[in-house]
Amino acid sequence: MTAVEAHAPAKINLALHVTGRRADGYHLLDSLVVFADLGDTLRAAPGATTSLRVTGPMARGVPDGPENLVLRAAALIGVGAELELEKHLPAAAGIGGGSSDAAATLRALSRLSGCAVPGDAATLGADVPVCLAARPARMRGIGETVEPVAALPALAAVLVNPGVSLSTPEVFARLAQRENPPLPTPLPRWADAAALVRWLSAQRNDLEAPARALAPVVGEVLAALSASPGCALARMSGSGATCFGLFPDREGAETAAAALARPGWWVRAVTLGGSQ
After folding, report:
1. Is 101 a catalytic residue?
2. Which of 125, 146, 167 corresponds to the end of one domain?
3. Which of 223, 241, 250, 268 has its CA 20 to 30 A from that of 162?
């Protein structure tokens, strides 16, 4: 095999409940995760040593040194390769860009070399295990427990990042309450997208309030999304600052995305759900 390509889709936390904190300081989560039909692209070709080139419209500021999760993933699987990461997702945005890039690297290098994906992928980050499958899932614990969610309806959405980065440790440090109710068990089976949105309206992102305290512009984004015609639910994803709005159909999402354009804001209409 001369070269392989792997997609690294944006990860969206439709709901994110913080349920506790372990003695070692890691927080316990219960989250419903889906993936968008938008993401980065990882290309890998055989190489005696590993190198990384970062390209694409969101490449500015992305490190190409050993701290990059792509290179850390390559080191974990132990395969030399010439790597190119084409960035379309903003960094430090709460949509799992780095983790999805790392997962795509592991998938690509496994195909390139025939080596199995390492079982300790979670050492690269809590979101890497769920990003390896890139399918709707319930993620629990510190990210190590990933349960596929079957037949989750696709959702039309708008993603908005206001161009600010949020530090995940700082957001968690601002949490007022660390022991909160989990998602219901078992999860229901939603008849359609409207039923899923109604159910989501009763869930939470427990990191939204601390993120808004650190970056008030998150509140501005949520207000703008909520005011968009047809928006059924607006919520922050992950630890922010990217927020999403859910719409009845892709046409409505496209119209809202065009109207939400602001200087410095990254705005995209997407479809959420399934393997992208």
Report:
1. no
2. 146
3. 250
